[in-house]
Write a structure and sequence with these properties.
Number of helices: 11
Oligomer: single chain
Strand content: 5-15%
Structural class: alpha/beta
Order of helices and strands: HEHEHHEHEHEHHEHEEHH
Number of strands: 8
Mean pLDDT: 92
Length: 280
Amino acid sequence: MAENDTAPSAAPTPSRYRTVHLQRAKDEGRRFAMLTAYDFQMAQIFDDAGLETILVGDSAASTMMGHATTLPITMDEMIVFAGSVVRGTRRAMVLCDLPFGSYELSPQQATESAIRLVKEAGVHAVKMEGSVRYADHIRMMTDAGVPVMAHIGFTPQSENVLGGYRVQGRGDDAAAEMIREATTLQDAGAFAVLMEMVPSEIARKVDEALHVPTVGIGAGAGTTGQVLVWQDMLGLRSGKMARFVKQYADLHTVVREAVSAYRQDVLDGSFPAAEHGFDA
């Protein structure tokens, strides 16, 4: 698509999506989409499909590495995944999670980690979980030239403190508290705020209170953008899906059946056939 070509009700497609384009979407009442990605080939597909943003999530710990939680993944591992995704994109804005243990100690630690992700992996922004106590972290990273997306609501890196995977933001004062938290992080320099597993009405009120865009996952339809883990929305992961996941394909069945057919062809000798070999 050329720079000035437009889809119905869409803004012109930029040569590379940046924070300014996400802000413009918020200002103009438009939305944008985000998926996780962890490798070159899937990033290429998502980029070709027109995704505005791709998140290299610390969910790679479970989806790609087999860990039970996101906690074990390291900065070095995130850099490998993130670099692979960046090399697979032309237009999507690539964000990367700061993994557990890479930012909590101080604003300096957070900034050093964020700079590594920009320099070594080539990402365009980082995402950091946490509450208002990380406002100074966001301020220093932003001052250093790294755009930061804040992540509030349910924060998987804090699951041991939060008591497991639980919806956040319920209660009489929930809306006011979450608005205060999001506003503080916005004022510290966050270019967007992601909300995870937050009641839909609370998330809508937060979005209305902020001038920066919001992103939701399990936060209803009132946010500026939406994000899902790609293995969930394409049905690659087996087992019960979270309530907030809409499954757009059943790749688990497609891949299993294809592999079974390949195995059977090998066992019965029908693969490789003559056309799959070379003449002398």
